[in-house]
Specification:
By secondary structure, the chain is of the alpha/beta class. Helices cover about 45% and strands about 15% of the residues. Strand 1 and strand 2 form a beta hairpin.
């Protein structure tokens, strides 16, 4: 065996171990548009219950037309970063619309929200500063914090008493700037952060507040302004990151909306912004159309709220173990990895596209089927999905 073969055998063994532990993640190619229902490469048509397509906009004719029109007017790509020749008027227009819609002072676009979070902390914090981070924050926040030199303090999920203790510890360590970082919605559980409590503690301890609102932007809150609106703290959040790749059309792209000084510094120093190609023009054009739709009507988020409540009530009545809440992320808790895989496989056979979530996406022993409702689902769809879960449980026997 050559040296290279020996090295590669290490990776092969690791993959085999992943498969043996029922943690291997398969991919099912889709041949149709993303939507409430999808067609797989083998021809099967499935109700889609695992997309982040909360408002059902992925296949919306208005967005497809807006993207096509942008291709004709602005081209396919820019082949440049923003500060060289990668800024079109629609990029500036979209940044202004994002900041206006969410009630922030300014906004900056990124290729993804992962990039937005990766480029945030190292830009605005130094070794003299501290990040106080929720233990269940998204991987992009965790990785972004690792890239900066600030000291990191973790607090228990949504635990305000523990958050205050970590703030006190950071103060006692002499932190110059204290930044509290949290998801607006914790994506594996559908739990909404206690932003009112966080903002109160931030005021008390003179800290900044950063919220990643990727799983809330466009549909959480009465007008879809996200968790700050839902929690009644609009104007009290200093930094709001989010994605255009979930409810807001589902393509790609992310943003940071924040205090004006912070956004200005990000334009000068944030590495993912300075060294990555600009957002594709078609996405910028279609995203502007999304915000027009959101400002015209709350019909989509209103239906989503009602159909989610109906789904949660039906699952609870059927005796499934759910994480309590009101968000359209509805995890059906199974705990065992092999059991979650078997549930997912049988659900696909019955015509419902769901995926088993297991380590490292969730902690070991917390395996689940994370179902997600979208605004294009109907009550008949929900009834079909719930019945499929009930049948699967009866077949498996647990």
């Amino acid at each position: 065996m050559s040296r290279k073969e020996h090295i590669l055998s290490h990776y092969s063994r690791e993959i085999a171990e992943i498969k043996a532990a029922s943690l291997y993640k398969e991919e099912l190619p889709i041949t149709s548009m993303q939507g409430r229902a999808v067609t797989l490469a083998d021809g099967r048509k499935l109700l889609n219950m695992c997309a982040n397509n909360y408002l059902g906009l992925c296949d919306h004719p208005r967005l497809i037309k807006a993207a096509k029109d942008t291709y004709d007017a602005k081209g396919y790509g820019m082949s440049s970063v923003r500060f060289i020749c990668g800024t079109q008027d629609i990029h500036k227009e979209l940044e202004q619309k994002i900041s206006q819609f969410f009630g922030m002072e300014d906004a900056i676009l990124y290729a993804s929200c992962f990039d937005a979070n990766a480029g945030l902390f190292e830009t605005i914090l130094t070794e003299d500063d501290a990040v106080i981070s929720d233990e269940l924050n998204h991987a992009s926040i965790i990785d972004g914090v690792r890239l900066c030199k600030a000291k990191c303090y973790r607090y228990k999920n949504n635990d305000m008493a523990d958050l205050e203790q970590q703030l006190i510890a950071a103060e006692q360590a002499g932190a110059r700037i204290k930044l509290i970082a949290t998801d607006g919605v914790f994506s594996m559980d559908g739990i909404i952060a206690n932003l009112a409590g966080i903002c109160d503690l931030a005021d008390k301890h003179d800290a900044l507040v950063m919220v990643d609102d990727s799983h809330a932007a466009g549909f959480v809150g009465e007008t879809g302004r996200g968790t700050p609106e839902y929690c009644g703290v609009k104007g009290r959040i200093d930094i709001l990151t989010g994605t255009l790749g979930k409810a807001l059309g589902g393509a790609s792209g992310g943003y940071t909306a924040a205090r004006r000084e912070i956004v200005e510094l990000l334009r000068q120093r944030s590495r993912p912004y300075l060294f990555s190609n600009t957002l594709a023009p078609s996405i910028a054009g279609a995203s502007l159309e999304v915000f027009k739709m959101l400002e015209e009507s709350t019909q989509l988020r209103d239906h989503l709220e009602k159909i989610t409540a109906y789904y949660r009530q039906a699952l609870t009545a059927a005796g499934f173990d759910l994480i309590e809440g009101s968000h359209p992320i509805v995890p059906v808790m199974l705990y065992d990895e092999e059991l979650a895989v078997e549930y997912a496989n049988r659900m696909v056979e019955k015509g419902v596209y769901v995926v088993a979530f297991s380590y490292p996406v969730v902690p070991k022993g917390k395996a689940r089927i994370r179902t997600q409702v979208c605004a294009s689902h109907t009550k008949d769809d929900i009834d079909f999905i719930v019945n499929a879960l009930i049948e699967t449980r009866a077949e498996i026997g647990r």
